[in-house]
Specification:
By secondary structure, the chain is an alpha+beta fold. It contains 13 helices and 18 strands. The protein is globular and about 60 Å long.
């Protein structure tokens, strides 16, 4: 759909800009917020997203920027704000990791503990290799390096053929530790690897259709690892397993840990695992066919045909993917990190622990930055490309949610949508929006005045 045909259906509710007298670094935060609004508007008006909501808060929790753009033809009479609930998928990961680190601080568990001390069902996990015994992650990295991450990455992948099945299974020679799980070095994966054999195995288990975490563990014990633990890093369900370890080590569910250690003591309301009766989640949209539509059953298939169950009667808690949250609530959690472990008068994590979360751990040779404990820390490349600044802590989720923390300027930012398979016109969204913010923040004040 052409932008000029879609524009009459766009509801663009203006930016809220609040000057914060008690936070000098944010007194003149955005002199031209409309320039950021314009970038957000473009991604909705060109048919790439059904809506976008962005919120920024300073260290004290004051809202320093807020904006929404909504396609009224897809979401009629829909208001989206800081209290709207979203499926946040992988933005759950940093919360689960922080809970685990809190258990470490309390001496309940150690980063070097073997996970089989808590999940003995994983004692006999095998490692998948190719017919010549070569590491699958090594093969995948070589392929990614050659093919890049653009369109056709999976369609043209020579490994996505049943001719390459079955893979060899070898004994695992290196025990999985808690820190392996945090750093995605354990070898667990989604059904989106470059190897059809592994993807079909994950899909066949359909982990989201199960009723309890015990059932999920039993099924995951049937999966081989994609690498020898500690030999490399590979993004996947490692944080989900980390949540299972946290539950068994503490004797509490993730929902209980979240309530007792994060929400109640720090007075954070907008984070949870299951819906309550008064929560209505927005639909997921897809641009897979070149035009926005509601997602079809089974399209969100990174863990099988079923999506995560948010009903209160469900007893599964996925620490890597399973949370819902509001922009207000998630910004509160990010402000805890920005404050190096404290929020609303309560110390949740020690300052040294938070420093460890954004210290370099993996992806150390990446020109764009490095991974801390599942926090991406940007390099000077972002500054060079006009995408932001060096040293930002970033992350995101499967349905196009995104966040960053700016420890230099003491603010946090959240961008929310509920979108699968972004069309080409929607590419580079976060970099462009973030770039519009930092074009003002990094420019001399004389260049940013109205």
């Amino acid at each position: 759909m052409k932008p000029k045909l879609l524009l009459p259906f766009i509801s663009l509710i203006g930016a809220i800009f609040i000057s914060c007298n008690n936070s000098p670094k944010n007194d003149a935060f955005l002199r031209q917020p409309k320039k950021v609004n314009t970038v957000i508007d473009q991604y909705v008006s060109n048919g790439s997203f059904p809506f976008l909501y962005m919120r920024m808060e300073n260290k004290a929790g004051d809202v320093i920027y807020e904006y929404q753009a909504v396609n009224d033809s897809l979401l009629p009479n829909t208001k989206i704000d800081g209290d709207t609930w979203f499926r946040i998928w992988s933005m759950s990961k940093i919360i689960t990791i922080s809970l685990m680190l809190d258990l470490v601080e309390d001496g309940i568990i150690d980063l070097n503990d073997r996970i089989t001390d808590f999940i003995p069902e994983f004692k006999n996990l095998k490692v998948a290799v190719d017919a010549n015994g070569k590491s699958l992650v090594s093969i995948a990295n070589d392929y990614y390096k050659e093919a890049g991450f653009g369109s056709g990455l999976y369609e043209n992948n020579p490994f996505l053929s049943e001719q390459n099945c079955p893979l060899q299974l070898i004994d695992n020679t290196n025990p999985i530790t808690v820190e392996h799980l945090i750093n995605h070095q354990a070898g667990f994966y989604y059904a989106t690897t470059p190897f059809i054999c592994l993807n079909q195995l994950v899909d066949s288990l359909d982990l989201n259709s199960l009723n309890t975490n015990e059932e999920v563990i039993k099924n995951m014990a049937q999966l081989p690892l994609i690498m020898v633990p500690g030999s490399n890093d590979f993004y996947g369900t490692n944080t989900t397993v980390l949540g299972f370890v946290a539950e068994r080590a503490s004797g509490k569910t993730l929902a209980e840990l979240l309530e007792e250690r994060i929400k109640k003591p720090m007075n954070i309301k907008g984070l949870r695992y299951k819906k309550s009766a008064n929560i209505n989640l927005l639909p997921t949209f897809s641009g897979k066919d070149g035009k926005l539509r509601k997602v079809n059953q089974g399209e969100l298939d990174i863990m099988g045909a079923h999506t995560i169950d948010y009903r209160p009667e469900s007893k599964t808690y996925f620490g890597g993917e399973g949370m819902i949250g509001t922009a207000n609530g998630y910004a509160d959690f990010l402000r805890m990190l920005l404050n190096h472990g404290t929020l609303n008068g309560h110390r949740f994590l020690e300052e040294a622990t938070v420093q460890q979360m954004y210290a370099p751990h993996t992806q150390l040779d990446n020109e764009w930055g490095y991974n801390g404990y599942n926090l991406w820390v940007s390099s000077a490349k972002d500054l060079e490309m006009g995408y932001g600044d060096e040293g930002l802590w970033r992350g995101g989720g499967y349905e196009q949610t995104h966040f960053w923390v700016d420890p230099k300027r003491d603010f946090v930012a959240v961008i929310m949508s509920q979108m699968f398979a972004v069309p080409e016109a929607g590419y580079n969204r976060d970099n462009r929006i973030r770039g519009a913010v930092y074009k003002q923040l990094l420019a001399p004040s004389s260049q940013t005045k109205n």
